[in-house]
Amino acid sequence: MNQALRIAQYGCGKMAVYTMRYVYEKGAEIVAAFDVNPAVIGKDIGEVMGCGRKGVKIEDAKHADRILKETKPDACIITTMSLMSDVEDAFKVCAENGVNAISTCEEAFFPWNSSPGITRELDEIARKTGCTLCGAGYQDVFWGNLITTLAGATHRITKIRGKSSYNVEDYGIALAKAHGAGLSLEDFEKEIASADNISESARQQLIEKGEFAPSFMWNVNGWLCSQLGLTIVHQIQKCVPQTYDKDLKSETLQMTVPAGYATGMSAIVITETEEGITLETECIGKVYAPEEFDQNDWTIEGEPNTQVVIDRPATVELTCATVVNRLPELIDAPSGYTTTEKMGVNRYKVKPLHEYVKTK
């Protein structure tokens, strides 16, 4: 491709500050921006980015259909919420206009095992209009390709264990509330944990109806099994509250979380496969105490055993950089809802992004 990529930004909050800057710094440009928040609608995107004016006004998301038709961007970056039901409309308006779209939505990483109905519908629209939809971010590398690369150096695998933690303060109020931050333990049990105290058949019914709320690792385990060629026979998840023995102030929740209340949760997913390999993965999202920090810890058990621990990864920046670096692969991928294990390993882009795009 011999001209700069033209990108739309859907959602102009904390993550967009990075994605939009990275787009410009990778030789592309933002041609449209959308949000639902009256506080940012009408602003120049430069105000959100903390730089000079860019000449692109943030529009109300209800006008996205018209503006996408007019601007015809090469791709759209969606940085809003964490569930497919939340980003369905954003994906749909992109797909209907033939605009490739990539989202930081955690469920979008591998939604086939949690929201198959929504995903099938989006897949059909995107195939008809000739565009590609997918989810990517931190998990694409640190919970996905990093692990499958290590697996490629292993003779025999019996179990894959993973644990990752992140500060919900960095991702906005919707994610913090979804993790139960600020709830009493009684309310956490009612509003968060009880949803997983169901039978496997009942969970499958929720999945088919599009009413299941997966933890982040639910979709990651599906992605890993797809990448490794494993056949899932059984998968469960449970959510456990995280607490702290002192009051913690949360800027995102605009409250002080009392000592002993839920600061967030640990979501544990156990997947058993036909091939005899078990995946036990855990993500911990909470309001951090002063001494806490992000950590990514994975172990492959077998012959040989291998462990990789990454302390203090810059999770937000890594998420946004992964998404922006994925744009050429998104544009070149087969039409439809194409998850990133089918796009190959994400690579650093030393040249402007358009130089990596081939004709679709």
How are the SSEs ordered, and which strands pair?
Layout: E1 6-10, H1 14-25, E2 29-35, H2 45-49, E3 58-60, H3 64-71, E4 75-78, H4 84-96, E5 100-103, H5 116-129, E6 132-135, H6 138-151, E7 156-167, H7 173-178, H8 185-191, H9 200-209, H10 216-228, E8 232-243, E9 248-250, E10 255-257, E11 262-273, E12 278-286, E13 295-303, E14 306-311, H11 315-325, H12 327-332, E15 336-337
Parallel strand pairs: 1-2, 1-4, 2-3, 4-5, 5-6, 6-15, 7-12
Antiparallel strand pairs: 7-13, 8-11, 9-10, 11-12, 13-14
GO molecular function: 4-hydroxy-tetrahydrodipicolinate reductase
Organism: Gehongia tenuis
GO biological process, one term: lysine biosynthetic process via diaminopimelate
